[in-house]
Write the structure tokens for this entry.
Amino acid sequence: MNNNSNNLVVENAKIAIIGLGYVGLPLAIELAKKYDVLGFDINEGRVRELSEGQDRTQEANVEDLENVIALKKAEGKDRIGLGFSSNTEELRKYNTFIVTVPTPIDQFKAPDLRPLIKASEMLGKILKRGDLVIYESTVYPGCTEEDCVPVLEKFSGLTFNKDFFAGYSPERINPGDKINTLTKIKKVTSGSTPEIASRVDDLYRSIILAGTHKAPSIKVAEASKAIENAQRDVNISFVNELSLIFDRIGIDTNDVIEAAGTKWNFLKYKPGLVGGHCIGVDPYYLAHKAESLGYHPEVILSGRRVNDNMGQFVANKLVKLMINKDHKIKGAKALIMGFTFKENCPDVRNTRVVDIYHELVQFGMDVDIYDPWADAAEVEHEYGVQIERELEDDKVYNAIVVAVAHNEFLSFDFAKFKRDNVVIFDTKACLDRDLVDARL
């Protein structure tokens, strides 16, 4: 376990960040304050946007972004700062590559390594002797050395741990969180040899104020990331299952949690939809690895089943409440408030709000989605769903689902809808309970 050193700089490190999303961009900005950094992305539009100091993910500190871009352009300065490119030939000028591409799951909930493998193929074609490739993308234990390194060897013609080296340092970005930012979260590091492990650790330690933890192997570092989110997933699935039970009993889950929380060692997890780039995905990576070794993970997968079904539960509960208020279901107007996977950020990756939408549509309801944070074009491209960034004042609804606790919704005038006998379901328990008909 190491502490940060503000004066530490790893000599001769010329760094290229592969993938400029929620993980890659903040990392590129911090490293560019001390190193020559290239931000690489195959999306030319993203590269143009960032070159102009704009970031649609809203994860970057815009002032920092502009400063490191200016550093790169300044004459007479040491070659530190941040440049951008989508040209693979530019990568040949660099010797340290940090891969931060997405690692999603496919329609069968199996790991989709295609972005990771394609990035490895691309790097293999430009890899030189002495180069270092560090992966940050979430994977299962063994993926770096068993899946990625052979691709690097094949396309480079070089030998692993002789001609080039590898490291792994799992990302810990929390989208939308402006307090627990990159440099304030302790970083797990690892390398393919003891010497490389120290170099990787020094590299991150030079920018991470919270310090680093050097894991004894790449597999340990990979596993640490997987269980971080699997643990949270299982804990949330427990309270989600409690909410299903307490709904049948007729008591409020949040009231129960508040009462139980008076004991010092009770963990106050809240029920809700579990989506996003980590918690709703990483457990499947761990389960995949376990099953490949002949073990069926009961606890992990049972938790996943509970969490994956919460959208269906919300929709069915809403319909029952509407029937109790004498609403006709087919053709009823419903409004879903929020589509991102969490509050106050534009990230729609693996959002489970879409499950509520599809279930209500199957009931024959006319469903609108309102989210002032989400990008409408991205949502339509990824999910085939249309959303509105502004809400029409004169539109009448029979039911409203508050799916995300955006700040804009906390001050929203729900009282005007109550006059029309509307059913309001608060999935986040974020509203005055007198306003709502039910909550998770």
Remarks:
- The domain at 253-439 is CATH 3.40.50.720 (Rossmann fold).
- The chain has a mean pLDDT of 94.
- DSSP finds 15 helices and 13 strands in the chain.
